[in-house]
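Suppose you are handed a protein chain with no further information: no name, no annotation, nothing but its sequence. What can you learn? This example shows the usual starting point.
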Amino acid sequence: MSQTSTAISDLALFTLAIDSKLRVCNLVRLKVADLVAGGSVRDRVSVIQSKTGRPVQFEVSENRRISMLTWVTSAPVLGQVFLFPSRFHGSPHISTRQYARLVNDWVSAIGIDPSGYGTHSLRRTKAALIYRKIGNLRAVQLLLGHTKVDSTVRYPGVELEDALSIAEKIDIRGHGGRQQSSAILHLTLLKPDRIVRFEPLRDI
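A reasonable first move is to predict its three-dimensional structure. Written in structure tokens, the prediction is:
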């Protein structure tokens, strides 16, 4: 693969990993037909998750569709079944290990220690941003394809985010009073023992 093709491939894979929010096992197995119909890249894609056997949908923004179309019409993909074909014989698509190495290279290239990041960092990026913007846990659950909301709560550090938001709004002053009682009530309802910290490399 030429240097130009590699750059196009990396851009397509990186942006799709963020947009799709798919587990790595499903991302590397995406087929050209999953995204392309009638010579155009779909704005919404549905795939069956290998972990749960259930469908999950994701959106492909206009800018992403442009980069994806550039990739699917390039020489390395023409005539291929899989969207990201492997450069090695015996494997029809890139492996999860190959993808992990690429993520490591991307993180290192921008001067960040790659030890704290992995393939799952890209999966959760957009999900965490969506939750912080709209606060809709059910929406994030659907986008991630989680069968249980508990997984979604742990995933983007939702409870911790909520706890910090409440803490920022509470000013505890001395000598008791309504503010102090209100603060105690909020802290009781939060159940601090259940707060789960963000774990960059955890796979859910």
